Amino acid sequence: MNQDEKSAILVVDDDPSVLESTSRLLSAFGYLVFPYGNAMDAAMKLQENNIRVVLTDIIMPEVTGLQFLEIIRSFNSEIPVIMMTAYAELDMTIDAIRKGAFDFLLKPFKPEYLAHSVKKAFDHYRLKQLEKNYTGTLENTVENRTRELSDALTLVKSASKEIVERLAGVAEYRDTDTGKHIKRIGSYSQRISVALNMPAEFVEAITFASILHDIGKVGVSDNILLKQGPLTPEEFDHPYGYR
Question: 5-136: what CATH class?
């Protein structure tokens, strides 16, 4: 997109003299002007080009400025539309505002009024585009961060599962009877929590947590852990073995 396209303005007026003089003024101000004598041709052009602002007369034959405004709003809700009129009627002004008019110029208008109104419209359009771009960038950033967080949580969950399984393996190594017991407790915990209609997150958590219920055996000495028969009072006093 070149610089001219960023300053493109569509001017519509059925009065050839007004259309020509207004177009010349806007061209002198540095805008790329597309002049049209009727609204229907202008509407077709509007859909083909990167028009930033529309300047249109209100009182026109066949299609009025207000009808043209409705046509514009049917496919573009953002482009600023400046209405020109020689009759400052309140009802017409209110109707135009309701339909989405950006500003009004009362004919005959001074060049500086035209310049100010058009510049304000272009500034408004650029601001809207900046807001849209910022919103789009923000949404993409949030989406990317959310995906990264989800991936990180998946990795953490996977790592946690691996750690739990390794710890359970250590407990099983210390006591050969523990392995099957650990698996049974995990299975029972899962089935019971499902039967109680617990949330899926709870079912997953309790299943993993139950596997670690005998992890304390890792710190118990073999002479106590593997002893056949009851423990002596001294062994109860030193459950982790003699120091």
Answer: alpha beta
